[in-house]
C-alpha cells in the first residue's frame, strides 16, 4: 500500500476540512500516480472534494463508521476489517490519500510514501504522522525545487520494507 500527501513544512495537510494548497503541478503528480488505481480516503476527505464526488477513473474506497453512508461511485467500508476483505479482491496499486485520521490508521501498512512538501507554514489543524526512520522509513528520492504562484515545493519519496 502506498501513501500520497501534500504537506506544509510542518507536516500540516488541512485546515477547516479543506486542503492547504492548490498547486497544479502537485495535482498533476497526484493524478499521474493514482490514475487507474485504487484510492482509499476518509469520509471527511471525500466531503472536502469538489461537490463531495469521488475522483474519476479510479476505484474510490471511502471509510465511514456510519452504516447508512453511501454515495454514488464509492465503495464504503465501515471498519478496517471490511477494508482488508475488499482489498483482497483488488489488483493494481492502492493509494491512501488521506486525511489525517486515515493516514494514521493505514500508515503501518504502507511501504511507500509520496510527499509533496510546500515550503510554507499554513497554520494547519490536521497533520500527516511522522515517517519515522525508527519504523524503517528512508528518503529515497527528492525532486529539484519547483515554484508556482510564489510557492516553492518539492516531491519526496520515502520507502521502507514491511
Ligand atoms: N494535503 C493532503 O494531501 C490531504 C489529503 C487528504 C485530506 N486532506 C485534508 O485532511 C482533512 C481531513 O482529515 P481528517 O483527519 O479530519 O478526516 P479523514 O481522515 O479524511 O476522515 C475521517 C473519517 O473517516 C472515517 N473513518 C476513519 N477511520 C475509520 C475506520 N477505521 N473505520 C470506518 N470509518 C473510518 C470516519 O468517518 P465517519 O465520520 O463518517 O464515521 C472519520 O470521521 C481535510 O482538511 C482535508 O482537506 C489533505
Briefly summarize what is shown.
This protein is α/β, with parallel strands linked by helices. The chain has four helices and twelve strands; from the N terminus they run βββαβαββαβαβββββ.
H-E string: EEEHEHEEHEHEEEEE
| Fraction of residues in H or I helices | 10-25%
Structure summary, number of beta strands = 12
Please report the first level of CATH classification, the CATH class: Alpha Beta
Mean of residue pLDDT values: 97
Number of domains: 1
What's the arrangement of secondary structure elements?
Layout: E1 2-7, E2 12-15, E3 18-19, H1 24-34, E4 38-42, H2 43-48, E5 59-63, E6 75-77, H3 80-88, E7 94-98, H4 100-106, E8 112-118, E9 126-127, E10 138-142, E11 146-148, E12 151-159
Parallel strand pairs: 1-7, 1-8, 4-5, 4-7, 5-6
Antiparallel strand pairs: 2-3, 2-9, 8-12, 10-12, 11-12
Can you walk me through this structure?
The chain is an alpha/beta fold and 162 residues long. The chain has a single domain, classed as 3-Layer(aba) Sandwich (Dihydrofolate Reductase, subunit A). 20% of the residues lie in helices and 35% in strands. It contains 4 helices and 12 strands, in the order E-E-E-H-E-H-E-E-H-E-H-E-E-E-E-E. It has helices at 24-34, 43-48, 80-88, 100-106, and strands at 2-7, 12-15, 18-19, 38-42, 59-63, 75-77, 94-98, 112-118, 126-127, 138-142, 146-148, 151-159. The strands form 2 sheets. Strands 1, 4, 5, 6, 7, 8, 10, 11 and 12 form a 9-stranded mixed β-sheet that branches. Strands 3-2-9 form a 3-stranded antiparallel β-sheet, with no helix packed on it. The radius of gyration is 15 Å and the shape is globular. The protein starts with a strand and ends with a strand. NADP nicotinamide-adenine-dinucleotide phosphate (NAP) binds at residues 5-6, 13-14, 17-19, 41-45, 48, 63-66, 69, 78-80, 97-102, 105, 126.
Amino acid at each position: 500500500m502506498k501513501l500520497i500527501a501534500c504537506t506544509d513544512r510542518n507536516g500540516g495537510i488541512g485546515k477547516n476540512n479543506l486542503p492547504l494548497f492548490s498547486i497544479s503541478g502537485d495535482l498533476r503528480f497526484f493524478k499521474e500516480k493514482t490514475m487507474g488505481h485504487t484510492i482509499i480516503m476518509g469520509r471527511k476527505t471525500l466531503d472536502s472534494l469538489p461537490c463531495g464526488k469521488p475522483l474519476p477513473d479510479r476505484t474510490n474506497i471511502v471509510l465511514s463508521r456510519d452504516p447508512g453512508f453511501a454515495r454514488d461511485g464509492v465503495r464504503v467500508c465501515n471498519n478496517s476489517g471490511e477494508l482488508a476483505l475488499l482489498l483482497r479482491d483488488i489488483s493494481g496499486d492502492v493509494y491512501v490519500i488521506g486525511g489525517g485520521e486515515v493516514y494514521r490508521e493505514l500508515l503501518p501498512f504502507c511501504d511507500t510514501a509520496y510527499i509533496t512538501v510546500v515550503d510554507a507554514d499554513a497554520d494547519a489543524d490536521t497533520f500527516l504522522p511522522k515517517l519515522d526512520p525508527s519504523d524503517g522509513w528512508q528518503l529515497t528520492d527528492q525532486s529539484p525545487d519547483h515554484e508556482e504562484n510564489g510557492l516553492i515545493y518539492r516531491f519526496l519519496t520515502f520507502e521502507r520494507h514491511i
